[in-house]
C-alpha cells in the first residue's frame, strides 16, 4: 500500500518528474508545404476579375466545363437505370477494394480494348479523372523532377504537380497547325529529371484531336528519351466528322503509358466521380509503378462503390446512338459558333476537332482600350453579360475559351452579343494611328 501512496497522482506531478521538450508558449499553426504550393490558376484568375454582368441582359456563361449545367444534355436512360438498380440491390453501400470491385474493373477492361490488350489487373478505379491524374503524377513525380505539359492546357496538371515540388515545363500547341504540338520544342525540354510527358487528346481547352502521325511522332520522342506518358483521354471518342481518335497506348508496344479516362464527359455524369487509370506496362518497366499506384489508391479507400456496382451495366448497355447524338449536337454547336464568330471583326476562332471547347483569338491591336484578354473579358461581361474564360487561365494570352455544351439558342445569342461588342470597340488601323498621334500631341503640349 505504501508504494501505491507514493505514486504521483496528478498530471502536474507526472510532468514534474520528466523533462518537457516543448518550448511553445503560443498558438502557431502552420500549413504544410504541400498545401502552400498547391493552387488553382483558373480560380486565382477568375476571382481576380471584376465580373459584373449587365443587369438588362441575362448572363450567358460560356465558361463552365460541366456539360450538365444547363440541363439540355442528360445521361442516357440506361445509365440512370443502372444506378437505380444498384441502389435497389443494396450491393454498393459498403467499401470496395482500393483499386475497385473486380466486376467493375472487368467492365472497364472490356470498354477500353481499343487501347490495346487490357486485363482487370491493369485497371485502377478512381474518384473521377482528376483523381486518376493525381495518382499518376503522384506516383511518377517527386521534388526536383519535372513533367511536360501542353500550353494552352488544362490547369489541373500544374495544380497537382506543383504541390509536390514538381516543375512544370510547357510545350507549345500551335494554333496555325490546329493545335498540334511543337515537337522540336517538346524534345528540347526533356532532361534527366523529366519524369513524365502529359498528352491531352482530345484537348482542353483547344478541342484539338491529334492525327495518328502526329501522335506517333510524340510517342517516338518519348521512346527516344525513355519518358513515360500520362495520356489524359477523358474526351476519348469525342471527335467530329473528319477526325479520328487514336489512343496513345495503341501506337507503341515499347513506351509505357498511364491512360486516364472515366464516365465524366462522354456519359454526362461528372458529379458521379468515376474515373480510371489503365496501366499499359512494357516489359515490366511499370512493375514498381504498379505497386506505387496500389499504395496511393488506399489513401481514399477506393472510389464511389455505388457507381462501381452500376459500372458494368453503364458501359455494356449504353447504346452507340446515344454517343453519336451527343457528338452530333456538339459538332452542330461548334459549326454554329465558328461560322458566326468567323464573321466578327477582330476575332479568330479555331474550329475544334472534338471535345467540348473552342479557342478564339483576339486581334488585340484592334482593341487598344483593352490591355489584356482579362480586360476584354471583363468588359464583355459588363456590357453584354457573356462570360468566357480568358486565355490566361490556360497560360495563353489574347485568346478566350468558350464551351459548346450550352443550349443552341444561347450560342446564337452569345454570337450576336459578341458581334455587337466587337463592332463597338474595334478600331481600324487609321483610327489606331490617329489615337496614337493624338496621344503624342497631348504629351507634347504637357511638356
Descriptive labels:
8-stranded mixed β-sheet, globular, 447 residues, 41% helix, 2 domains, single chain, Aspartate Aminotransferase, domain 1, Aspartate Aminotransferase, domain 2, 14% strand, alpha/beta, 4-stranded antiparallel β-sheet
Folded structure, characterized:
There is one protein chain. By secondary structure, the chain is an alpha/beta fold. It folds into 2 domains: 41-71 and 321-430, Aspartate Aminotransferase, domain 1 (Alpha-Beta Complex), CATH 3.90.1150.10; 77-317, Type I PLP-dependent aspartate aminotransferase-like (Major domain) (Aspartate Aminotransferase, domain 2). Helix content is 41%, strand content 14%. The chain contains 16 helices and 14 strands. The strands form 3 sheets. Strands 2-9-8-7-6-3-4-5 form an 8-stranded mixed sheet, with helices on both faces. It is globular and about 80 Å long. The termini are far apart. The relative contact order is 0.15. The mean pLDDT is 93.
Offer a quick outline of the entry.
This protein has 447 residues and is α/β, with parallel strands linked by helices. The protein contains 16 helices and 14 strands. Helix 10 links the parallel strand 6 and strand 7 (229-232).
Question: What's the SSE blueprint?
Answer:
Elements: H1 2-6, H2 11-16, H3 33-37, H4 41-48, E1 60-61, H5 77-89, H6 102-111, E2 123-126, H7 129-140, E3 146-151, H8 156-162, E4 167-174, E5 180-181, H9 183-189, E6 194-200, H10 212-225, E7 229-232, E8 257-262, E9 275-280, H11 287-297, H12 305-317, H13 320-342, E10 347-350, E11 357-362, H14 373-384, E12 386-387, E13 389-390, E14 399-403, H15 408-425, H16 429-446
Parallel strand pairs: 1-12, 3-4, 3-6, 6-7, 7-8
Antiparallel strand pairs: 2-9, 4-5, 8-9, 10-11, 11-14, 13-14
Helix pairs in contact: 5-12, 6-12, 7-8, 7-11, 13-15
GO molecular function: L-tyrosine-2-oxoglutarate transaminase activity; pyridoxal phosphate binding
Domain Aminotransferase class I/classII large: 59-418
Family: Belongs to the class-I pyridoxal-phosphate-dependent aminotransferase family.
Amino acid at each position: 500500500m505504501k508504494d501505491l501512496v507514493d505514486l504521483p497522482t496528478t498530471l502536474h506531478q507526472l510532468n514534474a518528474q520528466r523533462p518537457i521538450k516543448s518550448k511553445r508558449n503560443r498558438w502557431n499553426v502552420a500549413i504544410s508545404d504541400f498545401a502552400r504550393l498547391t493552387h488553382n490558376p483558373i480560380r486565382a484568375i477568375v476571382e481576380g476579375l471584376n465580373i459584373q454582368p449587365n443587369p438588362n441582359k441575362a448572363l450567358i456563361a460560356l465558361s463552365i466545363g460541366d456539360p450538365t449545367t444547363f440541363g439540355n444534355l442528360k445521361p442516357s436512360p440506361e445509365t440512370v437505370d443502372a444506378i437505380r438498380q444498384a441502389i435497389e440491390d443494396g450491393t454498393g453501400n459498403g467499401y470496395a477494394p482500393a483499386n475497385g470491385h473486380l466486376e467493375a474493373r472487368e467492365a472497364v477492361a472490356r470498354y477500353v480494348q481499343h487501347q490495346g490488350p487490357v486485363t482487370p489487373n491493369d485497371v485502377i478505379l478512381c474518384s473521377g479523372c482528376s483523381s486518376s491524374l493525381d495518382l499518376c503524377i503522384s506516383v511518377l513525380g517527386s521534388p526536383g523532377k519535372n513533367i511536360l505539359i501542353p500550353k494552352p492546357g488544362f490547369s489541373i496538371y500544374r495544380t497537382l504537380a506543383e504541390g509536390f515540388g514538381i516543375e512544370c515545363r510547357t510545350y507549345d500547341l500551335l494554333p496555325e497547325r490546329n493545335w498540334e504540338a511543337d515537337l522540336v520544342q517538346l524534345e528540347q525540354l526533356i532532361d534527366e529529371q523529366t519524369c513524365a510527358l502529359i498528352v491531352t487528346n482530345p484537348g482542353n481547352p483547344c478541342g484539338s484531336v491529334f492525327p495518328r502521325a502526329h501522335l506517333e511522332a510524340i510517342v517516338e520522342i518519348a521512346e527516344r528519351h525513355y519518358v513515360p506518358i500520362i495520356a489524359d483521354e477523358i474526351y476519348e471518342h469525342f471527335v467530329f466528322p473528319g477526325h479520328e481518335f487514336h489512343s496513345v497506348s495503341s501506337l507503341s508496344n515499347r513506351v509505357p503509358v498511364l491512360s486516364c479516362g472515366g464516365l465524366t464527359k462522354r456519359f454526362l455524369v461528372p458529379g458521379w466521380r468515376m474515373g480510371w487509370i489503365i496501366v499499359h506496362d512494357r516489359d515490366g518497366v511499370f512493375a514498381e509503378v504498379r505497386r506505387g499506384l496500389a499504395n496511393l489508391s488506399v489513401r481514399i479507400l477506393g472510389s464511389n462503390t455505388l457507381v462501381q456496382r452500376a459500372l458494368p451495366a453503364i458501359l455494356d448497355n449504353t447504346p452507340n446512338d446515344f454517343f453519336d447524338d451527343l457528338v452530333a449536337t456538339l459538332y452542330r454547336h461548334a459549326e454554329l459558333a465558328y461560322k458566326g464568330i468567323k464573321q466578327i471583326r477582330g476575332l479568330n476562332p479555331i474550329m475544334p476537332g472534338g471535345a467540348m471547347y473552342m479557342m478564339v483569338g483576339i486581334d488585340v491591336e484592334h482593341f487598344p482600350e483593352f490591355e489584356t484578354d482579362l480586360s476584354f473579358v471583363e468588359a464583355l461581361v459588363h456590357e453584354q453579360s457573356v462570360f468566357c474564360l480568358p486565355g490566361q487561365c490556360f497560360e495563353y494570352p489574347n485568346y478566350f475559351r468558350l464551351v459548346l455544351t450550352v443550349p443552341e439558342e444561347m450560342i446564337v445569342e452569345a454570337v450576336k452579343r459578341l458581334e455587337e461588342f466587337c463592332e463597338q470597340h474595334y478600331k481600324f488601323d487609321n483610327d489606331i494611328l490617329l489615337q496614337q498621334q493624338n496621344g503624342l500631341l497631348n504629351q507634347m503640349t504637357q511638356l
